[in-house]
Amino acid sequence: MMYKFRCQNCSEYNRLKGSFTDRRELAETKGEPFRIVCSVCGRKTEVKANSVTATETRFLGLIFPLVFVPAILLGYYLFTNFIERNSIYLKLIAIGFALKIPAIIYSALSKSERDKVRNFNRYKL
Ligand SMILES: [Zn+2]
Predict the structure, then answer these.
(1) pLDDT in tens, 73-96
(2) Ligand 1 centroid to residue 13 C-alpha, Å
(3) How far does residue 42's CA lie from ligand 1's centre (Å)?
(4) I need a labelling partner for 122 at 20 to 30 A (CA). Which of 3, 10, 111, 116 fits?
(5) Which helix or strand (DSSP H or E) is residue 107 part of?
(6) Distance 121 CA to ligand 1 centre (A)
(7) Residue 18 alpha carbon to ligand 1 centre in Å
(8) How far is 88 from 67, CA to CA, in rounded Å?
């Protein structure tokens, strides 16, 4: 999850570093309002907790193939080596699991990411 706000001087979006459950925690940690140097125009801008919004990170979409491809290779490896002499059903089950596990992990991670974003954006101060 990442946080963004608009600079009051140049109106460009900035990213805010840190980890906050909600706007209350953001205000308690950073102050309300807090001042920060804009990464675009380099001038100080005042930011209110209510003007900060959380968005999902693209990160998950990027790591997914990195998990998925090895899982397919693992499934293929199991298929061709370990269970060669066993029934076709066992092979299918092994491949099914190899494909399913990263899918389960991914959906769990993206759901918790979505929940965190929703939780942050839900309440204003
Ligand atoms: Zn700016």
Answers:
(1) 777 777 667 666 667 777 777 777
(2) 8
(3) 6
(4) 10
(5) helix 88-122
(6) 23
(7) 19
(8) 25
What region, left, alpha or beta, does residue 106 occupy, with left being phi > 0 and alpha being psi -120 to 50 degrees? alpha
Q: What residues does 5 pair with on adjacent strands?
A: 14
Q: CA torsion sign, 21 to 23 to 27 to 28?
A: negative
1, 9, 13, 75, 98 from 42: Cα distances, Å: 24, 10, 13, 51, 49
Please give the distance, rounded to the nearest whole angstrom, from the Cα atom of residue 111 to the centre of ligand 1: 33
Let me know: does 4 contact 15? Beta carbons within 8 Å. yes
**Residues composing the chain:** 125
Cβ within 8 Å of residue 123, ≥6 positions away? 22, 23, 24
Q: Tokens 């940690």 identify what position?
A: 29
